[in-house]
């Protein structure tokens, strides 16, 4: 029987353990901080739980535009934020103040953070129980490689495996001039221990994490300043999608400081001061450092046994999750391949299928879908605008704004779009970008099309619900398939 020892119990580690156990291997998972990993305990799950609250706050803020009048908010009541701050540009909301915290509804921070912590803990426990049911041995300890087949823990035990999987994840990047203190200068892992919604949160970094928290905290009533070193927020994303988000941010009252690099962050009394490299300063009650992550590969004994690391400290792996040492595999954020829970899990599964002699295809990143949980969300899959614009991929593209979608109009949604890329000639769907509320749910049909090589013709002939936001996906397909009799039905109907 093959013995597998896995270092790290996040999605890279626990999903691998489940696969290996189902194939009859003897499996041990060693984890220092809790099963489920940073994904479940501090990063992905907590942030999306927090965002469930902020999303509800946004919906409440927009409710007056749909004719909902709270009791006690009479004519002449001054909203804390102007209506326009909640992104309502049309006549829908004319003269109707938005529901804005703290007047009519407010967030109870302690309850919100406790809910986040409890949900994360419960999910971690669920995964641990599942591992136990599958007869996976779970060891709560920190481990390090002491040979290509052996891991030693800080509790003095040694675990020997025919196969080792390294899945130790990553930690928030720390800047020497902006050391987090957990009280005022924070990483995203400190947020859920706060007692309050920051009065004025200065978010340093406008990548996915910075944008998600800026969006969420603004919706929960915080003043937010977003410090971005680049031309625009979300520099790595579809430029049209990033423009929509930046526009919404600005309309909702987030101060976006583009081309502004933070040089240092210091505490001043009950607040923080962020010094920019051009000499300007920004003050706030709290600073959130969202400047990326570093792999947790230091001190693991990896290079001592011959495992090669990249310049940033990531474990070098191939598409079968193999490292440079036979029998040692790696998965997840420690490899720097693509920092997503879904990718970590797939890398871990591939490692086990490969190690245990199953037929397995190498990891394919071209069909990974991902989502940014701002409000609205941005979901993407496959070919990107940059790939098309640089000529890396020949593609036709069309963008259908949601403002043309009848369901969106009924729901008062004005921001967002559906963009589809297809191969010229054959019309095979190559990729898509959706900016919409719950874009994460809408992208699946595009992902299916990309994964299975469906054509825009096939999508165009698929019934979508009328009226529905997904009607814009079939509409985009019809636009890319010219001469269609029904083109425009969803927008005109
Ligand atoms: C704020 C935020 C939000 C995110 N949201 C999403 C999202 O919405 N969707 C998505 O797909 N991804 C999201 N991600 C990314 C996702 O969290 C990661 O890609 C995922 O956690 C990677 O899984 P992993 O198994 O590689 O590592 P982790 O989840 O980090 O797990 C690694 C585990 O290894 C343990 N470990 C480390 N060193 C040792 C050691 N020496 N001994 C024993 N154990 C050790 C750690 O304690 C940890 O439990 C988000 C990330 C952040 C920062």
Automatic annotation (TrEMBL):
<dbReference type="GO" id="GO:0008753">
    <property type="term" value="F:NADPH dehydrogenase (quinone) activity"/>
</dbReference>
<feature type="binding site">
    <location>
        <position position="292"/>
    </location>
    <ligand>
        <name>NAD(+)</name>
    </ligand>
</feature>
<keyword id="KW-0520">NAD</keyword>
<dbReference type="InterPro" id="IPR036188">
    <property type="entry name" value="FAD/NAD-bd_sf"/>
</dbReference>
<feature type="domain" description="FAD/NAD(P)-binding">
    <location>
        <begin position="3"/>
        <end position="348"/>
    </location>
</feature>
<dbReference type="InterPro" id="IPR004099">
    <property type="entry name" value="Pyr_nucl-diS_OxRdtase_dimer"/>
</dbReference>
<dbReference type="Pfam" id="PF02852">
    <property type="entry name" value="Pyr_redox_dim"/>
</dbReference>
<keyword id="KW-0547">Nucleotide-binding</keyword>
<dbReference type="InterPro" id="IPR001100">
    <property type="entry name" value="Pyr_nuc-diS_OxRdtase"/>
</dbReference>
<feature type="binding site">
    <location>
        <position position="143"/>
    </location>
    <ligand>
        <name>FAD</name>
    </ligand>
</feature>
<feature type="disulfide bond" description="Redox-active">
    <location>
        <begin position="39"/>
        <end position="44"/>
    </location>
</feature>
<dbReference type="InterPro" id="IPR023753">
    <property type="entry name" value="FAD/NAD-binding_dom"/>
</dbReference>
<dbReference type="GO" id="GO:0050660">
    <property type="term" value="F:flavin adenine dinucleotide binding"/>
</dbReference>
<dbReference type="GO" id="GO:0050136">
    <property type="term" value="F:NADH dehydrogenase (quinone) (non-electrogenic) activity"/>
</dbReference>
<comment type="subunit">
    <text>Homotetramer.</text>
</comment>
<feature type="binding site">
    <location>
        <position position="333"/>
    </location>
    <ligand>
        <name>FAD</name>
    </ligand>
</feature>
<protein>
    <recommendedName>
        <fullName>NAD(P)H dehydrogenase (quinone)</fullName>
        <ecNumber>1.6.5.2</ecNumber>
    </recommendedName>
</protein>
<keyword id="KW-0285">Flavoprotein</keyword>
<feature type="binding site">
    <location>
        <position position="48"/>
    </location>
    <ligand>
        <name>FAD</name>
    </ligand>
</feature>
<feature type="domain" description="Pyridine nucleotide-disulphide oxidoreductase dimerisation">
    <location>
        <begin position="369"/>
        <end position="477"/>
    </location>
</feature>
<dbReference type="InterPro" id="IPR016156">
    <property type="entry name" value="FAD/NAD-linked_Rdtase_dimer_sf"/>
</dbReference>
<keyword id="KW-0274">FAD</keyword>
<dbReference type="Pfam" id="PF07992">
    <property type="entry name" value="Pyr_redox_2"/>
</dbReference>
<keyword id="KW-0560">Oxidoreductase</keyword>
<comment type="similarity">
    <text>Belongs to the class-I pyridine nucleotide-disulfide oxidoreductase family.</text>
</comment>
<feature type="binding site">
    <location>
        <begin position="205"/>
        <end position="212"/>
    </location>
    <ligand>
        <name>NAD(+)</name>
    </ligand>
</feature>
<keyword id="KW-0670">Pyruvate</keyword>
